[in-house]
Design brief:
about 15% helix; about 100 residues; alpha+beta; three-stranded antiparallel sheet
Length: about 100
């Protein structure tokens, strides 16, 4: 079983890539919760920039021009948290794992 998402990787340039929302309901809900936007609606065209993911969650392209996200990766780096991980995530206490079905 691969630790990298099986959905099509995002096309990217040398600095950024843009990723579609996951189809898995639980992971998709975690993304929406993490983004913290009021009245946020996801469409098939909604993307999240690679800068919102940790380095561990993004696999840089080797010979392709695409980046892959780690399976289960959730965007965590935002302006409202100074582009750093929330303390609870750094200490291993699940800030997103508390989400129930």
């Amino acid at each position: 079983m691969s630790t990298w998402d099986t959905q099509k990787p995002s096309k990217c340039n040398s600095a950024l890539s843009f990723h579609t929302f996951p189809t898995d309901f639980k992971t998709r809900r975690k993304w929406i919760y993490a983004i913290r936007r009021d009245h946020f609606a996801v469409s098939p065209h909604t993307r999240v920039c690679s800068r919102h993911f940790t380095n561990e969650d993004v696999r840089e392209p080797l010979s392709e021009t695409a980046r892959w996200l780690r399976k289960g990766a959730v965007p965590a780096l935002f302006e409202w948290n100074n582009l750093s991980l929330p303390l609870s995530r750094q200490t291993g206490v699940g800030w997103l794992t508390n989400l129930k079905n």
